[in-house]
Design goal:
585 residues, alpha+beta, Beta-Lactamase, Helix Hairpins, 4 domains, six-stranded antiparallel sheet, six-stranded mixed sheet, 14 strands, disordered N terminus, disordered C terminus
Length: 585
């Protein structure tokens, strides 16, 4: 790669260095000439004071040196500055003519190198050409007996020195171009590194500001628990605990969920994650029992260096005291309300039972009391479910009473019960129910599951929408015969993120929290628990804008042998289809 020596194409820093180097190079050359002159004067048996060539050469070197120190070379194009080394070649040639036996000829190599390295291809040619011209002229004058013969002024010696100077100039030119190319490449790489370093500093500052802006503590720790990095929230956490700001993580006062047992050194999250465990949202208590204490949620991750080795662990601590208190208050409220509701419900159940035992009740009054009794019993069951969702006591857990039941009839009864509400919202219901589908199950609990799913299909459907209910037996299942209940709607649907918490207790999707649709968020959670107790599965397939389909699947169990079919066939006006009655309303 060739770099043009024109001053207009050379950066300012390079021209500045070149302007300074003119004087330095000339001083070095003048010093070498002065040294050779002194040696020649001291050792030459013949005087040289009467040689005009010697006087002209020495004077030329002197004046060129003075000019190199006084002329503002940066004000001129670089090619005009070639006059300095060219004048040096002419002066050295005169000195060699005056004293052929001295070492002035070898000094020609210095201005030739100067021209080849600083002035590009033109300098590489001009230097050896002028020097060769001086040498050829000296040899010619010697052959014409104008100058005194000498072994250093023969045509052979002149040609050899000319070739040597040309070779040196070529080598120096090539080397200087290579060096200059490498210098340019290095300069570019330096700029790239500086840019990368600047971007890294900006990114580091951005990450630091982002970490300081978050409300949870972030710590970078090594294998020994020493804190390498921390954000503002981590320092504020230590301040709340009255601990020094440089307290290592393994010195944090962490306690288990019982608030009494301190964590052992080997149980600290950073050591566990370094040993290969996954630490994600684990709850601890932090703070000594005699000081400030609160609940924190801890997660830990590993960071690797550029070669893939583990360099440190990042520990995230989030204060969840308010959330824990809110959950405890909610559970206490649910428990309190459930207990308070049980007393009036028990009283209502008793009085309704007594009213039903009264003789002479009109049929319509008895029918209304039966409805009141059924709904009161169901409300009492829901209160029990609330207590079961709140308590882990075995006395409050959901229990099953399994017996053979007609699942088709259960679904039909649930549809009949929900139909008035569906009609209010102008919802059409399409039924595809196999007749006589039975299973060994708790009919009351299974009806509760169907009611919950149907209620959601009505509540979260769009006005004028559609509900499709399908009941069928699946004898070819891998784990034995089963009953499948499909309930699909054309409502708003749910995103994947909303479906993740669908079966959590008290969970309600973000899209319905601010709507007029009310709920406790317990229906699907209790439904899944009931289905799991039946050793079955409940699955949800939903998409925003498309609607939701829920599939409940429970094993049929060990059903008793069916009774022999009667000889007389079923009347034709009863059969709607061969074995799959359908309904559209």
């Amino acid at each position: 790669m060739e770099v043009t020596p024109d001053r207009d194409r050379v950066p300012g820093s390079l021209t500045s260095r070149f302007g300074d180097s003119v004087f330095r190079s000339q001083v070095m050359l003048a010093g070498a000439v002065a040294l050779v002159v002194c040696i020649t004067v001291a050792l030459s048996p013949d005087g040289i004071d009467d040689s005009p060539a010697f006087f002209l050469g020495l004077t030329a070197v002197l004046w060129v040196t003075i000019a190199s120190a006084t002329v503002p070379w940066l004000a001129f194009p670089m090619r005009l500055q070639m006059v300095v080394p060219l004048c040096d070649i002419a002066a050295i040639g005169l000195l060699r003519i005056a004293e052929p036996q001295s070492g002035f000829g070898i000094l020609l190599i210095f201005p030739v190198i100067w021209l080849a390295t600083s002035f590009g291809r033109l300098g590489c040619v001009a230097g050896p050409a002028l020097a060769s011209g001086m040498l050829v002229a000296q040899a010619t004058l010697t052959e014409l007996d104008v100058l005194q013969p000498s072994v250093t002024t023969t045509p052979i010696s002149a040609a050899s020195l000319s070739v040597t100077l040309a070779f040196v100039a070529g080598v120096m030119y090539t080397t200087s171009r290579r060096v200059e190319s490498q210098r340019i490449l290095l300069r570019r790489q330096t700029r790239m590194l500086e840019d990368a370093l600047g971007r890294a500093r900006i990114q580091e500052a951005t990450v630091r500001e982002a970490l300081d802006a978050v409300q949870f503590a972030v710590l970078g720790v090594d294998r020994h628990g020493e804190t390498l990095t921390s954000n503002r929230a981590a320092r504020a956490l230590l301040s709340q605990l009255d601990l020094p700001g440089n307290t290592p993580f393994h010195r944090f006062p962490l306690y288990r969920s019982d608030k009494v047992t301190p964590l052992l050194p080997a149980e600290f999250p950073h050591l566990r994650v370094l040993s290969g465990e996954a630490i994600d949202s684990e709850t601890y208590w932090i703070g000594h029992r005699t000081g400030t204490r609160f609940t924190i949620d801890v997660s830990a991750r590993l960071l690797h260096d550029e070669v893939g080795e583990v360099s440190r662990a990042v520990v995230v601590l989030r204060d969840v005291s308010a959330e824990v208190r809110a959950i405890a208050d909610r559970d206490d409220l649910v428990t309190s309300m459930s207990h308070e509701l049980r007393t009036p419900l028990s009283s209502i159940l008793g009085y309704v039972d007594l009213a039903l035992e009264t003789d002479g009740l009109p049929d319509d009054t008895r029918g209304m009391l039966d409805i009141a009794l059924a709904n009161t019993q169901r409300l009492n069951s829901l209160v029990s479910d609330l207590l079961a969702a709140r308590s882990t006591s075995p006395a409050n857990q959901i229990s099953l009473r399994r017996e053979p039941c007609d699942v088709s009839a259960l679904v039909q009864d649930s549809v009949d019960a929900i139909r008035p509400l569906a009609n209010e919202r102008l919802l059409s219901m399409s039924l595809d129910i196999d007749s006589g589908v039975e299973a060994v199950a708790d009919a009351f609990r299974l009806r509760q599951v169907i009611d919950n799913v149907l209620s959601n299909a009505v509540k979260y459907n769009r006005a004028g929408g559609r509900i499709i209910v399908t009941v069928a037996a699946s004898p070819d299942a891998l784990d034995g015969p089963a009953v499948e209940i499909h309930i699909a709607d054309t409502g708003r649907g749910m995103s994947l993120e909303e479906q993740k918490g669908l079966f959590e207790r008290f969970y309600r999707a973000e899209s319905v929290r601010g709507s007029t649709v009310h709920g406790t968020g317990l229906g699907l959670s209790i439904s899944r628990e009931i289905v799991v107790l039946h050793e079955g599965t409940i699955e949800v397939d939903s998409e925003p804008g498309r609607g939701t389909e829920v599939c409940v699947r429970i094993p049929r169990g060990d059903l008793p042998e069916p009774a022999p079919a009667p000889d007389d066939p079923r009347p034709a006006d009863v059969a709607i289809g061969p074995d799959r009655p359908t309904e559209e309303s």
